[in-house]
Amino acid sequence: MQRQLAQLLQPPTNRGVGDRKKTLSFFQPDWNCSGRALERVPEKDGDGPKWVCGLDEIGLRRPSKCLVYSFGSNGDTSFEEAVKKRRPDCEIFTFDPTLSASAMAKVRQVEKSGTLTFVNKGLASKDGSMVFGNLTGAVSTLHTFVRDLGHDGREIDILKVRAPGWLRLRISDA
After folding, report:
1. Helix or strand or coil: residue 154?
2. Which among 111, 51, 123 has a CA at the least distance from the CA of 84?
3. Which pLDDT score is estimated for 171?
4. In 3-state terms, what secondary structure has residue 127?
5. 93 forms bridges with which residues in the sheet?
6. Which of 17, 126, 128, 131 is most buried, by CB atoms within 10 Å?
7. Other Cβ atoms within 10 Å of 75 Cβ, number
């Protein structure tokens, strides 16, 4: 079982599949949206798009704006841009303490357009700092982010977490 998991977690190019973007598109969700529309946002190949249930219905029965927390972007804001295009009423916060200078510049440009608010911190089980490969970044808990951003009492409509290294760690620890 562990050998199978290790093979699945290898980068797609190491499994004999040449195009990483197309390989990532093979993965389909295995949950039920309870009658709401399931869709890939945005509709393209690669790691940027994510599966969402009922995007057009999110938060419509509340007076407060739709709220999106997006952890981990690797500089790819296609998901956030697609959500904002479909749902201009959503407040979108993107968190990532691991961006290169060029990725940071791209995210800051998208932030200037009003699509999202960027926070140069990551998600963790406690506040402080964490080592990500060869760099150390600031991290906070979800509770701390909610409090510090003034979102106490608000519902987070979409919580996206892109943290492939964490997934490998948790599976390998099992």
Report:
1. coil
2. 111
3. 36
4. coil
5. 69, 117
6. 17
7. 16
HSE of 108, CA atoms in CB hemisphere, 13 A: 8
pLDDT digits (tens, 9 = 90+) for 2-48: 444 444 444 444 444 455 555 555 566 777 778 778 777 877 766 66
- Span 114-164, pLDDT tens digits: 999 999 999 988 899 988 888 889 999 999 999 999 999 999 998 988 866
CA distance 77 to 164: 17
Give the Å distances, CA to CA, from 132 to 49, 66, 124, 163: 23, 30, 12, 11
Q: Which strands form 67-71's sheet, in the order they lie side by side?
A: 117-119, 91-95, 67-71, 158-161
Sign of torsion over alpha carbons 70, 20, 5, 53? positive
Q: What's the CA gap between 45 and 52, in Å, rounded?
A: 15
- This prediction has a pTM of 0.76
Q: Structure tokens of 35?
A: 């009658």
At 46, list the tokens. Answer: 């690669």
